Amino acid sequence: MALIESLAALSLATVSAEGAVATKTLVFKPKTAKTATPVPVLVFALQSTQTPSPLVAQAASVKEPRLAKDDLVQEFFAVSAKEVSIANLNKDLAGKIKIVIDQNIVDADESTVLELSTESAKASLPATTIKAFLESTGIELIPVDFSAAPVVPAPGAGAGAASASKGAKDAKKEAFKKEKEAAKIEGAQLIGITVDKAKDFSSWYSQVCVKSEMLDYYDVSGCYILRPNSYHVWEQIQDWFNFRIKKLGVKNSYFPMFVSQRVLEKEKDHIEGFAPEVAWVTKAGNSELDEHIAIRPTSETVMYPYYAKWIRSHRDLPLKLNQWNSVVRWEFKHPQPFLRTREFLWQEGHTAHLLKEEADLEVQQILDLYAGIYEELLAVPVVKGKKTENEKFAGGDYTTTCEGFIAATGRGIQGATSHHLGTNFSKMFDISVENPLGSDKPKVFAFQNSWGLSTRVIGVMVMTHSDNKGLVLPPRVSQYQVCVMPVGLNSKTSDEQKKVINDGAEKVEKRLKDAGVRVTGDYRENITTGWKFADWELKGLPVRLEYGPKDAEKDQVTAVRRDDGSKYVVKLSELETRIPEILEEMQEGLLSKARKDFDEHRVTVEEWKDFVPTLNKKNVIVAPWCGVAECEDDIKDSSAKKDNGEEEEVDEKAPSMGAKSLCIPYEQPPFKKNQKCVKCDLEAKYWCMFGRSY
Amino acid sequence: MALIESLAALSLATVSAEGAVATKTLVFKPKTAKTATPVPVLVFALQSTQTPSPLVAQAASVKEPRLAKDDLVQEFFAVSAKEVSIANLNKDLAGKIKIVIDQNIVDADESTVLELSTESAKASLPATTIKAFLESTGIELIPVDFSAAPVVPAPGAGAGAASASKGAKDAKKEAFKKEKEAAKIEGAQLIGITVDKAKDFSSWYSQVCVKSEMLDYYDVSGCYILRPNSYHVWEQIQDWFNFRIKKLGVKNSYFPMFVSQRVLEKEKDHIEGFAPEVAWVTKAGNSELDEHIAIRPTSETVMYPYYAKWIRSHRDLPLKLNQWNSVVRWEFKHPQPFLRTREFLWQEGHTAHLLKEEADLEVQQILDLYAGIYEELLAVPVVKGKKTENEKFAGGDYTTTCEGFIAATGRGIQGATSHHLGTNFSKMFDISVENPLGSDKPKVFAFQNSWGLSTRVIGVMVMTHSDNKGLVLPPRVSQYQVCVMPVGLNSKTSDEQKKVINDGAEKVEKRLKDAGVRVTGDYRENITTGWKFADWELKGLPVRLEYGPKDAEKDQVTAVRRDDGSKYVVKLSELETRIPEILEEMQEGLLSKARKDFDEHRVTVEEWKDFVPTLNKKNVIVAPWCGVAECEDDIKDSSAKKDNGEEEEVDEKAPSMGAKSLCIPYEQPPFKKNQKCVKCDLEAKYWCMFGRSY
User: Fold this and answer.
1) Which of A643, B445, B502, B605 has the fewest CB atoms within 10 Å, i.e. the most exposed one?
2) Looking at the record, which segments are called Disordered (chains A, B) (predicted)?
């Protein structure tokens, strides 16, 4: 992670498609007097170069260098030893460390591409770029020809040192060649995902997001760039949702991103939750502002004073406004693409109604639309329900929610929430009208709702469907649904035959475009078909259309689905009908697979003894519950990993996190008689869904 | 302006529809020792109440109060005497001023609505709200019954004082009655625009923006709320433009709003123009940030480092990204709705190309789209052309522009610009690829364009079409194109007849909706038809459809166009075809009227002696010009109003601003032989458009 972030900051390269030569970065700590500050030696060499410590010692003029431990690496490079790379270098380190650099790298020519790697990330860059960067840091660079240098065997240097001495210029060239060959063979994998979804979910997720070109890490921590591959998903969601909320009479608008300190802090209770995360503008140009100005973390305090102003009579109700904007919450927790970002895109709807019934109805209508975005567009199943008192939006009367599930981690994830605020805010902001029954009756406060859905939905979609080949995108939201690729062409193919195939493929592309399919074509010639397939799989293309000499002969194309690899032979005469069908089949396939996963991992538990073991099997739980807040706290507490817990709770593999209530699902099967709460002795009131969660 | 802004800050009312009683706010300066700070007395009274200064002196215990001059009013209330109202009061004034309040206002009951007015604005508020506000300021309030109080005639009190003494309770009631009647008669005008477009354009504009519900003033100065009536226009523009740029291969994306100080200041030349206006985030929650973070004033430095990273080979070109976002430029000049705002919405396209020709072509394609937004959607004619070297975007090679014209002020206005950046930025950011001709050839820097269009377009549209009745919206962009209104119903109409008319109107509404017309209906019963008409005219509804007993009889509706009031009788059988036609006729009518205005006020001038007089007649000028930057400066300088200028330049009515070059129009009529520059002795190179401008 640190590597990728640092690279982003350096504006360096993305992972290269062509053969790159592997390198390694090692940090050594020389023997240092206790009172002195150590000067670590960083060794940057080809993976294939042996770098025995005596040579390092000799070159850097230090005593007894040993591989540095995590704390030292952390201190100097702000990452663990496993994650360190030259991307962690910066000018502040000049004078504080030394760099020993492999002569092979110094000698590398312009065409050489080097691969940097840490445990969680890889990136390939031209050697010249890397060298220029190293020089720009101002850190002392010490070139060493490890293969040529005379080795003074030292105690503890061992086999590595011995084998290093056999090298020469020839060996160096050999090493290059080998590396390059290895890279070529594994070409497709080099650009792909290098971490297993099942084994290291977090690194896998980060790689999928970046390598699929959904998103890139940005110079300002916690902020990310939404590239067209993800922004298109957001646009599809916007269109779908706008169309439907406008039918409900909601209108779009735009309120300023700024809130004055005075106004923001007016509603102490409301702001309390956001205060630690508010970003403050205090300066414009060189002038200090008289009053500090906040960037909206949400827009209640921005909008409601104007609702009070605009709503003068019951005829001004309902007022239903929505805005698509970005909000800023300067969280200090570890950021995560789409899921936890300091700036994020969302829509926030804020409505005011004369009657509670109207407001209640709208809360449900919006929740249904949110569920529709997940299920119909993103093919992600959700469970709709109500939040418990503990988990609801503090300012409101009740909160409804769509809850998703990430099968790979067994954790629940809050999808989107639709709140009924009652008259809590309308009383604070005096959003009121004369009583329609007569001015002698008390004035009436508006019943308000607010509801929001953010780009987090994209993260949930990525986590749900994607695999070790990369991104999987549901056809309804993907930028391209289909890519036509000429196949079966090789060096023996005549130019004439090539032209027939390319022209045929272009015709297929044109016909699909006219039929309203989001289609593109890949006619790149310098790369292999296999590499193309892998590249498009990485980027989540739903259906690849292969068109080769055999297809041309038989007036057909071969369609291959991204999610399960199933192949369809499609007659050209049926192109316009079959391709949309295949896309829809894939869309449905994704949803039903994900739904099966969720259904199988949403387990009914009635007795506490089964609760934590079930949870630890990557499930969420539906359990009978008393509805008492303290009992909910107790469940959370008791399902967290503790040193002194009951036996079944001390499970090494379980995350330390306790199970939160996710929602009280709307679907409530009947209870058996005298059903007790799963945790306490009270009678159960609801089935409640519990789980570890994001 | 100040009034409206202050009211916005107070979350007070918008202008009321019903009869309101006029008030006045006067500031008196008492005789004060030179060494002492004066304590002004603010008098707040009904317009009809005489408030002689001796009574003020007596009530406030001050000596010889005189109407205060501008400097004192400015010092205490931050506005001029003409603009002061009680909306300018705040807690900081407690202890520093006194308020004398008319007993009539103190006694006003709950149903009384008071009208506050300053020279440029009016607003009506319930008396109770006003009184609560006055009390909340903590300023000393001194109620005075001017009509009942015994008057001690004083030198200089004059006739006003004498006439004040005739009042009594009866007179007070009489005054109320008169005010209310006057208000009722002018009911329709009270909610409408109170300033003449031709006489006070700036106040007129501000009133149109606010009263039409396009926009509202916001608590943070320079920021405005875009209400649905204007945001809908923006959405129409987005849809239109997105559809067309996507065809050109441009993709939408989203980059973070933040830029680190280090990155922003990396390109010194680029940032220089923006630096004084950059808003800085320095704090998050209570933590000071280690590095200050800017809010983007534009996104070159945000995006281009990533362009350098993503563009690895000529196959990655062209890269064409666009984003719809908001940017912040903390200008300290006087803000103006839509035209100069501290946060504004825009789109910014940034593209990189392998070939200059490709980039050049795109610059023109985008400029044509911008002209299309103005002419096809907003019915605003523009002149396309190139900016002079003086006026082009400093970072680019050349700038193309659409220039509009505000007939009411005779000023030009820059519509939108499309820049070719050459390789200036690609060299700074190293956006380069290996030469496609071979790696031995020098690497190739990308040719870049950038282009942007902001919500300023909405302001230009408002200024162009709207009139003294309020907003005029072109049908293609208006939220509602048509509103159906039952007419001809009165207290004598039977319930049955009412139902027939209302049902009929609803049927018309339904049919138009099904035909894809953006239609609504106004079935409000407690207000008069005349008031409804005025209300919809104020809000810019393109076509009003009247449906009354006569229409029902004849199976017809009566359509009335907003722009010229022309009436059309439409047979119900032709509803779905005729209404869209009428809308299109209006759209074309608006454009041709505006084009006529622009054409008539774009005057060819060949001799300098005619230049300033022509300019002063609210024209822009097309003149032969030598193309020399210094000559351009000279033209600007010489056309500005100066005390010591030539005779024709000393024109009291001319604005002091000089004429800038607006563009070198693409349309270049042939020159006569040896055509000289309009200003200097050099030969003319182009026809150039000059004008005073926004």
Assistant:
1) A643
2) 637-656
Q: What CA–CA distance (Å, rounded) separates A461 from A446?
A: 36
Q: Tell me which of A230, A280, A351 to substitute to probe the interface with B (most B C-beta atoms closer than 10 Å).
A: A280
The one-letter amino acid code at A419 reads H
B281 in A contact zone (CB under 8 Å): yes
Looking at the predicted structure, is the pLDDT value of residue A182 above 80? no
CB contacts < 8 Å between A and B, how many?
178
Q: Cβ contact (<8 Å) for A280 and B275?
A: no
- Chain A within 8 Å of B312 (Cβ-Cβ)? yes
Residues A555 and A613 in one domain: no
**Per this entry, what is the length of chain B?**
694
Same-domain check for residues A224 and A349: yes
∠ CA B323-B324-B326, rounded to 5°: 115
Which chain A residues contact residue B234 at CB under 8 A? Answer: 254
Mutate to test the interface with B, among A258, A429, A433, A513 (most CBs of B within 10 A): A258
Q: Report ipTM for this prediction.
A: 0.76
Name the nearest CA neighbour of B424 among B644, B269, B551, B282: B269
Instruction: Judge whether A209 lies within some domain.
Output: no
Q: How many CB atoms lie under 10 A from the CB of residue A246?
A: 15
| B330–chain A nearest CA distance, Å | 6
pLDDT for residue B362 is more than 50: yes
Average pLDDT over residues A293-297: 96
Residue B687: pLDDT band with limits 50, 70, 90? very high
Cβ contact, residue pair B439, A227, below 8 Å: no
Query: Is residue B454 located within the same domain as residue B532?
Result: no
Q: Name residue B454's beta-bridge partners.
A: B346
Write the CATH number for B93. Answer: 3.90.960.10
**Residue A283 contacts B, CB cutoff 8 Å:** yes
| Containing structural domain, residue B112 | 3-148
**H/E stretch holding A189:** helix A187-191
- CATH code of the domain in which A379 resides: 3.30.930.10
- Smallest Cα–Cα separation from B457: which of B243, B278, B231? B231
pLDDT digits (tens, 9 = 90+) for A129-153: 888 888 888 888 888 888 764 433 3
Interface of B with A in 586-605 (CB under 8 A): none
Residues in chain B within 8 Å Cβ distance of A430? 11
pLDDT value at A222 more than 60: yes
A343 touching B, CB under 8 A? yes
- Distance set, CA A335 to CA A28, A295, A450, B227, B293 (Å): 30, 19, 26, 34, 18
Under an 8 A CB cutoff, do B279 and A276 touch? no
Q: Are A376 and A590 contacting, i.e. CB atoms less than 8 angstroms apart?
A: no
Question: Taking chain A, what is the end-to-end CA distance rounded to the nearest angstrom?
Answer: 19
The owner of tokens 């005189």 is B66
What pLDDT is attached to residue B32? 80
**Inside any domain, residue A352:** yes
**Same-domain pairing of B570 and B537:** yes
Q: Which of B586, B582, B533, B594 is nearest to B563 (CA)?
A: B586
What is residue A273's predicted lDDT score, i.e. its pLDDT? 75
Kindly report the average pLDDT of chain B as a whole number: 87
B12–A228 C-beta distance less than 8 A: no
Please report which residue ranges of A354-423 form alpha helices under DSSP H.
356-372
For position A136, what pLDDT does the model report? 82
A280/B contact by beta carbon, under 8 A? yes
Residues B583 and B609 in one domain: no
Report the residue of chain A nearest B126, measured CA to CA.
A312
In whole angstroms, what is the distance from residue B470 CA to residue B536 CA?
9
Of all residues in chain B, the one with the smallest CA distance to A325 is B325
The answer to whether A479 touches A518, Cβ cutoff 8 Å, is yes
Residues B556 and B618 in one domain: no
pLDDT tens per residue across span A366-387: 999 999 999 999 999 999 999 9
Q: Which amino acid is at A533?
A: F
